[in-house]
Amino acid sequence: MTSVLFQRVALIGIGLIGSSIAINLRERKLAGHIAIATRRKDTLDRAQSLDLGDSYHEDFAEAVAGADLVVLCVPVGACAALTALIAPALAPGAIITDVGSVKGAVVSAMLPHLPANVHFVPGHPIAGTEQSGPEAGFLELFENRWTILTPLENCDKAAVARLQNLWEAMGAMVEVMSPDHHDLVLAIVSHVPHLIAYNIVGTAADLETVTQSEVIKFSASGFRDFTRIAASDPTMWRDIFLTNREAVLEMLTRFSEDLASLQRAIRWGDGDALFDLFTRTRAIRRSIVAAGQDTADANFGRLRQHKDLPGQQ
Amino acid sequence: MTSVLFQRVALIGIGLIGSSIAINLRERKLAGHIAIATRRKDTLDRAQSLDLGDSYHEDFAEAVAGADLVVLCVPVGACAALTALIAPALAPGAIITDVGSVKGAVVSAMLPHLPANVHFVPGHPIAGTEQSGPEAGFLELFENRWTILTPLENCDKAAVARLQNLWEAMGAMVEVMSPDHHDLVLAIVSHVPHLIAYNIVGTAADLETVTQSEVIKFSASGFRDFTRIAASDPTMWRDIFLTNREAVLEMLTRFSEDLASLQRAIRWGDGDALFDLFTRTRAIRRSIVAAGQDTADANFGRLRQHKDLPGQQ
């Protein structure tokens, strides 16, 4: 059984997340009308050729007019200006949400521009890949993944429930928390891991004693996992670090302290300290697999190469 | 066409690498006889029940007697004592190699014990998964991956060529370099990435403000990739850090310097510095995919979940 949850959904921005939402709305028949708007004409044309929506708009106000749900699917840094632009066109009673990876700064950026007669429910689907653009979206992106909603204290409960229903209809599990706690959690599970991945890839690229071609050839020994994360969208990630500054700096300080302590253990040959940590971290991996948040397959189940093998005739 | 490259291969240690070599020797008919020896009776029994070899030995000297190839597939820290143990039993003219992730320390550990009439050719297959034990091995592990050989200067060229042939017959590509250069390359492409993965997982586990269950639930946002690496064998990795100390400390210093500079860019809101690095690192990912060292599929081609979807009747 399917049911239309919103009559008109306006998606502002149509990258990986926006296009995955569009595909979900379409395939699961969750929206009466899907209006897509984005800044660049070229991107809008690509979305249209992929048949992601029902109407396509260069004019944001036109897209949101009459929408009972508006979803900003843009880098965090673009939220303030966009909200100012669409605010006058928002229908009374509309729900407005976003998918940004930082919530405190998004609330500060959007709230001042919003009229009192709309429901603002910030959101963040914990799902993604290193790919971007309207071609990157797919139906299963949110399946079995968490979406965090961070409604403000005075927010209409019914609006939160409607948005939660939509995310669950797209396969997600939903958790509600405060914007500040969200930003702290994401700093450690996402933002600092991305930062150190970007950093190690940069360090490797700058070496004089090891060539870039050696780094690439021998990357299967661990490094290549980091390069996937370090291939994520630069604009999106610049904005995340600039807008979740306090929490990132706090977690980064702890990370560096811990790393200095490991460095000392290596310098002084303290094998027990290393072994103890390495045993503890292995258990956390097992918990993640047990919680269904990753595959148990070796190497993430990367496809094994099946070339023509000598001796297999 | 198949051809037996060695009459008797002795595998000392039968974890992920040892068992993958055994499976290759067997399936591709590269050895006349596969002798397997390991310290723990339980592991030896598991290897036997998996039918990995032709003979199984608790006595290392018995395993290597008459072997024209001996491969140490044990943690780096075990190489010295093992070599002392088997040295008297080595056949004249035998090739002895290893698969350790550090080469300088392995040479220092093994060379003093070896008789002059054997050929010592240290080696390191750049292949692995986070899994360990005799059950973890598989035929394709070395396919399209590099194996580095680090022969000493006075080494017999014919022995190096025979070992290179074997690795190529198992699907690997072979590169020859000095032990010191190997250790520098691996420090940046493998050892430091593993250390920072272990470290971030430890930092996350120690937080008071974010619960462990939150870390696990929301791990799909980046963190889970690090946990895979941080689930690697603790003994093996302890030994790597203790034995490749100088190169690891050197690379770690550079990493920390670079990270401090990124931290400063975040603190002072230098978005251009962040954007520039994030753009540069994306290009390196593309080179790794282009070199065939990783899949281009999003999320490493992790299998997408296909649950029963509402609205798909």
From TrEMBL, chains A, B:
NADP keyword on record: no
Gene3D superfamilies: 6-phosphogluconate dehydrogenase C-terminal like domain (1.10.3660.10), NAD(P)-binding Rossmann-like Domain (3.40.50.720)
Pathway in which the depicted protein is active: Amino-acid biosynthesis; L-tyrosine biosynthesis; (4-hydroxyphenyl)pyruvate from prephenate (NAD(+) route): step 1/1
Matching SUPFAM superfamilies: 6-phosphogluconate dehydrogenase C-terminal domain-like, NAD(P)-binding Rossmann-fold domains
TM ranges: 6-25
Pfam families from the UniProt entry: PDH_C, PDH_N
Keywords: Amino-acid biosynthesis, Aromatic amino acid biosynthesis, Membrane, NAD, Oxidoreductase, Transmembrane, Transmembrane helix, Tyrosine biosynthesis
PANTHER family reported for this sequence: PREPHENATE DEHYDROGENASE, PREPHENATE DEHYDROGENASE [NADP(+)]
Protein name according to UniProt: prephenate dehydrogenase
Organism: Aureimonas fodinaquatilis
